Amino acid sequence: MSSTLEATSLGKAFHVLEVLAASKDALPLLEIVQELGFHKPTVHRILGELLELGYVSRVEKGVYQITPKLRRLALGALDDRLTEIADPCLRLLHEETGETVNLGVLRGTNVRYLRVLESTHPLRRIVEPNSTDPFYSTSLGRAITAQLSDKEWDALLARTRLVARTTETVIDQKQLRKIHQRAQADGYAVEQDQNDVGVTCIGAPVYEGEEIIAAISLSVPTARADAKALPRFIKAVVRTARQISKLIQQQNTSKT
After folding, report:
1. 117: which strand partners?
2. What pTM value is reported for the model?
């Protein structure tokens, strides 16, 4: 495809987004077509691609609206704002458990770490802020993607190169689907020795409204995550994620 055609496709996609962003309500496909004067199949294809990327949602058959993800992209500095809001809660979790605490967001098919508070124990996993890990092998990634529908999750997996990080890493798609469904049902995700040998991670999603925008996790040497300690860690991580979500909601409410 030539650069001219790519620019034309990109331009049309932005025009579709502009029409949706300018409307207070969701818009039917035909109304978007009429507004832009593009061919209906072209607009339908663009909307499908924007749906997969998470910038547009379908509220009912043939009716679309932009998502909070697009609004956050336009606002910029989202990561800094999220880190600032979450930091006090992350510190409390760190003090309570003494283990490594992480805050991450999904970027493409990887989890990007925004904040890492390292364990006070000599035996710990060391992760640098702004480093990345695959979404499928981490509790952070599994928690962040828990809200995705089967179709959205399949599309994400189709773009992902599945590589075993350890001998325990699950890369079978059927098994990964079961893990995804388990995270949806539980409201959190646990990963043991799949991203790093000897490390167990517990992740829980952070919400803005009804949408998952990030996740937090606790990284614990597997030796310290025994049957007695693990439920306590899960409870603490889920509670902290809910506290951060509540703070985000309160801040958003105060601005309206």
Report:
1. 101
2. 0.73
